[in-house]
Amino acid sequence: MITIKRAVLIALGDELLSGIRREGNCAWLAGKLSRAGWKVECMEIIPDGNSSLSPFLEKWIGNTDLLVLSGGLGPTHDDCTRQALAAFLGTGLERADEAYDKILSRYPDDMRKNLENSRDTQGIIPSGTRPLHNPAGSALGVAFEKDGTKVLAFPGVPVEFTAMAEQELSGELGPKNGTWASVLIAGWAESLLKDRLAPVINRRELHITILPAPGLIEFYIRGTPENVARAAEDVRALVPNDWLPEGAGSLAGAAVMAAAEKRLTLACAESCTGGMVGAALTSIPGSSEVFFGSAVCYSNTAKKSILSVNEEILLHHGAVSSLCAAEMALGAQKIYGTDIAVSVTGIAGPGGGAPEKPVGTVWFGLADRGGVETVKRIFTGDRETVRTRAKNFALDRLWRKIREAPGE
Amino acid sequence: MITIKRAVLIALGDELLSGIRREGNCAWLAGKLSRAGWKVECMEIIPDGNSSLSPFLEKWIGNTDLLVLSGGLGPTHDDCTRQALAAFLGTGLERADEAYDKILSRYPDDMRKNLENSRDTQGIIPSGTRPLHNPAGSALGVAFEKDGTKVLAFPGVPVEFTAMAEQELSGELGPKNGTWASVLIAGWAESLLKDRLAPVINRRELHITILPAPGLIEFYIRGTPENVARAAEDVRALVPNDWLPEGAGSLAGAAVMAAAEKRLTLACAESCTGGMVGAALTSIPGSSEVFFGSAVCYSNTAKKSILSVNEEILLHHGAVSSLCAAEMALGAQKIYGTDIAVSVTGIAGPGGGAPEKPVGTVWFGLADRGGVETVKRIFTGDRETVRTRAKNFALDRLWRKIREAPGE
Hints:
The structure is a homodimer of 408-residue chains.
Chain A: E1 6-12, H1 14-17, H2 25-35, E2 39-46, H3 50-60, E3 66-70, H4 81-89, E4 93-95, H5 97-104, H6 109-116, E5 124-126, E6 130-132, E7 141-146, E8 149-154, H7 158-168, H8 170-173, E9 180-186, H9 190-196, H10 198-201, E10 207-213, E11 216-222, H11 225-238, H12 251-262, E12 266-270, H13 276-282, E13 291-297, H14 300-307, H15 311-316, H16 322-336, E14 340-346, E15 361-368, E16 371-378, H17 383-404
Parallel strand pairs in A: 1-2, 1-3, 3-8, 12-13, 12-14
Antiparallel strand pairs in A: 4-5, 6-7, 7-8, 9-11, 10-11, 14-15, 15-16
Helix pairs in contact in A: 3-4, 12-13, 12-17, 13-17
């Protein structure tokens, strides 16, 4: 039995309402809380200033289990969260010198003098509330409980908000041992996957969430430790070739991990993705152990001169063809001297389509020590969507190819 | 004199509160409205279902100029926006057959039959309200005015929301001739730029917003047509070498545009960015006219074999050095046969740093027909931040190099 606690998240900031910056703190915390079994009832994005916050405090304190505020704790006149909380509590503001000193002690002398000037703004809290240490910035947070609602106010600077939320909510957010599991699954459409996993989805003792991730679907399971462990095992058995190992948070991560385990080296040849596959692989720390490079050959001349694609193929079949994808993969494998290479060549649009090769047509080549194979997909969407889907598909096939290949 | 109208935006959706999807519709519209001179007073993200919306209708209708709802108009039992609006208006629901027929006429026969089944859910509106055509999906929107508030309800599917918002608010959102201008400026820190542009910023007749964009700062000006035109001209004169031409929405766009104008061809050699520069350039439609490719050479072996970087340089100076950056740029220029090439080689972290070359050190090379030059930067931040900053800096320098170069 999972107890569902309720939370409300409020972000203050004129810049969030004018399109200058997109709200991220509450969205991030909502995800964390939901995974930990909370129900987020409402998120509100409101202007800076005292008068805008007060009605929301009246509305929610006493009517939810947790109220988290983001922003309004800095040193400027716009920062009125402390004042609004004090007014709500019917109390004054007082200095929290011990807590502020703890923050100042982290700064070098010259900055400390400057921050001393902010003691009466960033270092004060409503009387009777608890000051919260800020491990990533200089403004104190505020905590109190009233009428059954736990209230936490954090600064809006994202790095400070997340550090303080993790610090203050660690007991609530941390993965409670075994009460959840996440399985990342590659290569499935969501509706087909739901059918396949129905035997697990339909178990009443589990709480299942299906989340889309780039090129993947995340199957998120909550319940008692033994039910969760059994469900995760059953899910993996139902899609035996498609689940990512733990620690691989993405297709690129899974490919780099698999290559490192087998001591295999990788390269790419990219046309329509223009470097996106290489950029994804190199986003993984440590990828330099296995990834040697990507030959982005956007022009046909470069395909010929760098990847040794046969001119006849380009003339008679075009750059978006099985034969060209095959030669690109073999060319990359050769010039980088790697065990495996993947190639991508397609028509991302908006121009360049033809009846027999519509926009979205993409050919992929996969070369290993045993030879080369190709596969075609037709993706829908605009230029960036086609490119992103092509990148994800290339990474998916590369990951599978690495697993099939014999080790070094 | 600019009239400021007020808007409130509400997004419905359990998936927005559970961290499954990040709210984007209201954030997008807030940016659009703010640019058109509106003040967005509040954005609220609330659960699906009738009961959650009603108090917000009570609260805002009559208290703001525009209320936009996103979501809750689909065919499932969770979709209760129509019901909540009808209850608020004290009226019933009725079929808007003409409007729904107009939507169905866009679909092929087999789908039309299916959608016919949804006529009593997606095709109904509260009596006395106006049905809104949906050019991108099958659910009708709803519009009415009450107590001085214009209420618009759009489906939550992003492509439908944006299409309908642009359709219904075109009079409000469209760039009112000359009442705004946007100047994108490259290569400046925000605080220094504010000092430089103070003579324009301090004009009382203008409303100025400074917005960060990737590698750029956007200087956004509102006011009367003649004041705006003069201010934009003065801004450009104050940063004569740093403003992007109209139509170039990004550094990559500016580089591709400049190269196309001068009929110059481009290539890259990338190490730590792993393909990000090539991916950015190829994100611009038509880039194939000027961009031939990028040699992503992550390993030293690839730098030697593909870009002909001298082994002695790698041994004595390392891959992150001025000499290596120079040879990489020259190598890319040569193998792709282009007029100009840019190279990037650096330490993105988290590993690989040393006291004399800390994490964040990145060397850039720029080769043209006249020779090659290099420049070093040390970027702060985590792996992805360093990589992104390096990508933006490379594009900035590439753009400037193209402008300096003589045309073909």
